[in-house]
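User:
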Amino acid sequence: LRRDLLTAWAARLLLQVAGNMLSLYLLYYFQSVVPGAPPAELAARVSHILTFAFIIPLPIAVLVGRLSDRVGRRKPFLFAAAALAASGLVGMAFARDWPAGAIGFGAYAIGSQIFLVLHATFAMQLLPSPEHRGRDLGLLNLTNTLPALIGLGLAWLLATPHDFGLLMLALAGLTLCAGVTVLAIQGRR
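Assistant: Predicted structure:
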């Protein structure tokens, strides 16, 4: 179970790197996709897409969570959510206009939010010992802070002010790896 918990930790960390990077660089990403847009207009558009990207996944995540409860399995749903998020990042990598970038970000947001909601439940089921749940949850929460360090390095290596394509592809790869990593968890025996 400790190995499973470590694997779940790694999966969440991989997915969180993309989320952290997008929260820091989304405006710059859209500036690279729509280079001629006035800054105030672009900032307002990014604000709108962020609002929709945080609201729309909420009911979808609840429905997918209920479905995974009924089926009694979380891993296929976690993998599918990671694949959706990765496909959105690939779409963002190749986007050359606002609508394509916005649709890619929307797909990423829905997939990543579903993954994070289901992963929280999945990780709770993997906690090995009631005596150490606080410690184990603290270790899981490092996946919320460590991605900033990893992501900044990736951005420095792979992004330019006018091209985020390679960074988006790298984030898509990490996100898909998160889904594959979840499949390696054996669960309670």
